[in-house]
Amino acid sequence: xxxxxISMESFSKSKILFLVQLPxxxxxxxxxxxxxxxxxxxxxxxxxxxxxxxxxxxxxxLRAISLIxxxxxxxxxxxxxxxxxFLRPEAVYYTITPTGNAFYRDAVYVIILxxxxxxxxxxxxxxxxxxxxxxxxxxxxxxxxxxKNSYVICMSDMLHDELDAFHPKNIFTVNxxxxxxxxxxxxxxxxxxxxxxxxxxxxxxxxxxSTLKYLKDLExxxxxxIIGNPSNVSERQLLDFIKxxxxxxxxxxxxxYGNDKYEYLKKPTIxxxxxxxxxx
Length: 280
Prior knowledge:
single chain; four-stranded parallel β-sheet; alpha/beta
C-alpha cells in the first residue's frame, strides 16, 4: 500500500484529494481512475493528492472478507485523516462503492470527510443503489447520510433516479472515454466471436458459453475466443464448464493488455458481452 502525490507549482490551483482504486489489480474502475489522475487537463487545473484505496492484491480477492482487509481499512483511514490535516483540500473526489459490504466500509470514510466539512464529489462506477436500499432500513439511512448535499458523477443517465431520494446537491453524467485506435482489419477465413472481460459471472460469461452449445451447425463460419483475467470464475472452472458441455471451436487466451489485446480486435470480430450488471 502506498500514497501518491502529484504536486503543482502554482499556489492558485484548487487542491483536491483523490480517494481512488488504482492498478493492480487491473479492472474497469482502477483503469479509469488511472486515466483520470494522469489527465493533463486535470493536472493543469488542480493540485491533486492521492490516497489509494488498495484492499486487494488480486481480482479473486476483491469480494472476500479478511482480517488483513480490516487492518488495511484502518491504515487507509489514518492516511486520509493525515492528508486532510496537512493538505487542507477544497474538495474530495471519491470513487465510492455503491453496494455490498464495501459500501459500509466506504461510509466510514464519509464520516471522516463530513467531520472536515469538505465538498464531496462521488464518482459511481456501478449501479444497484435503489435495490440495495430496499433490502434493509439501515441502508436507506446510510445512503441519505452519504449522499446528502454531495456532488455525484454517474456513467449513465439511467442512474439518476437511483439517487434522487437521497438528496445529493447535484448529479452529473460523464460517460467513460476510451482511446481511439486506428488499425487495418486483418483478413481471416472465419469470424471471431470475442468475449473480452475479466472472468466474472455477472458479465454473462456462462450465458455466452451456453449459447455456443446451440451454434454447432454454424461452427465452420466462426471460432470463439475468451480473453480475461480470472476473477470470481477461475480458469479451472471455465475449462471444466467448456469440457463438460462439449463446447468445441473455442479457446481461452488468458489476460491480454495493450497491443496484445488490439491484435485480437484487428481480426474480423463480433464482440459478445451479455453483461447482467453494468450501468448501461
